[in-house]
Every structure is written in C-alpha cells, then in structure tokens.
Design brief:
Layout lengths: L2 H8 L33 H20 L4 E6 L1 H12 L1 H6 E7 L11 H7 L3 H8 L8 H7 L6
Parallel strand pairs: 1-2
Length: 150
C-alpha cells in the first residue's frame, strides 16, 4: 500500500496530492512550452515561496480547516523546510510536518567526475542535461552508468 491511499482508505484522512512544477504531469503553461527555456526559468526558491503557500491556502479554503499536516518526500521536504522558514503565515497554517527521505547533501563519492558534477553549479548541469525534467532520462542514465555511479 502506498501512504496516501493508506491514509485515505484506512485512516479516513482527506488527502491532497501536489502536482509539482517540472514533472511529466505539469507540462502546461499559459504562455510557454516545455521546449522553451522560459518554461524552466524557476527554481526550488519559487516553489517554496509561491507554490507551497498557494497549495496550502487552496486546501484550507476548500476544506474550511484552520491548519493541515504536510507530508513531504525528498525534494518536497526541502520545499517545505524552506517555505516554513521563510513564511511565518504559512508556518502558522501547518500543524505538523512529516519529512520522508529528507533532502541532504550527497555523501562523498570516489569517482572524481561524479563528485565534480554533484558539487557543480546549476549552469554546468544544465549544459549536460538541458533545462528539462530529468525523470524521463532516468532509465537511459541507469543503463549507461555503473550501479555505483548511478
């Protein structure tokens, strides 16, 4: 069982799932298309400052509740931590945070090329991978790289 279904079906919680920018389900924009650089001109800063508060306010408005519990996974935890640390109003609207697989600094790797990529600037990563969602290329990189590097 996955957590959202278990929370809804077993514990009878009202569960809302966020659709993050940059995934395969969020390729629509009122002006730009995914092939345009402007479509990707955002960072985790914007998701923490704008997207997270907008989602929380929307859920609270629709449900009429005064606060909610946020459950984040990986990048979602980083967005929650950043958003709550920067927005006092948002922090008052969240009663609990559950941080699953919280984002951390990668452990040191012995491969100098991989280590350089991990600690490089975003511009270098954009040069290698482009400005787009990486999930679509995961299987390619899994086949090309050794298990340790992957």
């Amino acid at each position: 069982k996955n957590l959202p279904l278990a929370l809804h079906d077993t514990a009878r919680y009202d569960v809302w799932l966020a659709n993050r920018r940059g995934n395969k389900y969020s390729n629509k924009h009122v002006v730009y298309r995914p092939g345009q650089p402007e479509f990707w001109d955002w960072s985790i800063d914007e998701t923490a400052l704008y997207d997270l508060p907008a989602m929380v306010e929307h859920v609270l408005e629709v449900t009429g509740c005064g606060s909610l519990v946020l459950i984040g996974f990986s990048q979602g935890t980083a967005e929650i931590f950043a958003g709550l640390s920067l927005n006092a109003r948002l922090a008052k609207r969240v009663s609990l945070v559950v941080a699953l697989a919280a984002m951390t600094r990668p452990r040191p790797v012995s491969n100098s090329l991989i280590s350089s990529l991990i600690h490089s600037t975003p511009d270098l990563l954009f040069l290698f991978f482009g400005r787009r969602a990486l999930l679509g290329s995961v299987l390619f990189w899994q086949d090309v790289m050794s298990p340790e590097a992957y």
